[in-house]
Design a protein that fits this description.
single chain; 253 residues; alpha/beta; Rossmann fold; six-stranded mixed β-sheet; four-stranded antiparallel β-sheet; 10 helices; 26% strand; globular
Length: 253
């Protein structure tokens, strides 16, 4: 967990004239879970979406500073091919499960057909492998050609995780992946994330402080667009160095 795979240096972000991130500096270790915590509207999701340049599509978006992936500044290449290549290496799972209105198998195969030319059996094998990694295969093995919309919310979210893995990304971004799920489904997702970090690097936004405490190796506390504290999760929660963080984790903010 020592090698830095994502490095943000003096990141400032504006939407039009509204500045939402101020001199943000973060190092994300490889094969780890980094949790971004803080009140709503403090810049966590903006930072997360900056890692794979999803904010580029927002009118008025502007970023300064250096966002590096494996040492390479990802905002240097502005052509469509560079951005598309970047996003192939960075999967993303959103707050609400968003399966395609088709079968479970097609949910996994359709997004990769334009990137990988395989036989029908190779596509199927890859899909099954990712379903197993996401902890869903045993629950849906007899329903692969049935509609994904029939799955429960927790199952749909694990399907979205499997879909994000189909392009074999190095990094997976999660934007509050459990906020719409019940506690049992949440625990299943957390178990999956713990398994995933042995193969992938995970950065996640969460408002669930207990979730961050349970599964994150590193936690970063945002407040009003700035990083107030960052460090190993257990240390951060046990001995917050700032009054702001102490108030936030004790529910007094």
């Amino acid at each position: 967990m020592d090698r830095t795979i994502i490095s943000a240096e003096n990141i400032n972000v504006w939407y039009g004239s509204n500045q939402v991130l101020f001199d943000v500096n973060i190092e994300v270790p490889e094969n780890s879970i980094t949790a971004l915590i803080g009140p709503s509207g403090c810049g966590k999701t903006t930072f997360l979406r900056s890692i794979n340049r999803l904010n580029d599509i927002v009118p008025g978006f502007k970023l300064t500073g250096r966002m590096a992936l494996d040492g390479c500044d990802i905002y240097k290449g502005n052509d469509a091919a560079s951005v598309q290549s970047l996003r192939r290496g960075i999967g993303m799972v959103f707050q609400q499960p968003n399966p395609l209105p088709t079968t479970i198998m097609k949910n996994l195969v359709l997004p990769i057909r334009e990137h990988h030319k395989m036989t029908k059996q190779e596509y199927a094998d890859a899909a099954v492998d990712k379903l197993k990694i996401s902890g869903l295969y045993d629950e849906v093995s007899e329903r692969l050609n049935k509609s994904a919309l029939r799955l429960s919310g927790g199952q749909q979210q694990r399907l979205c995780i499997a879909r994000a893995l189909m392009l074999d990304p190095a990094i997976i971004l999660f934007d509050e992946p459990c906020s719409a799920l019940d506690p049992i489904s949440t625990m299943r997702i957390e178990d999956v994330l713990q398994e995933l970090k042995t193969r992938y690097t995970i950065v996640m936004v969460t408002h669930n402080l207990e979730q961050a405490r349970r599964i994150a190796d590193k936690t970063v506390f945002f407040y009003l667009g700035e990083i107030i504290e960052a460090g190993p999760t257990l240390k951060l929660f046990a001995k917050p160095e700032t009054e702001l963080l102490e108030k936030y984790i004790s529910g007094r903010m």
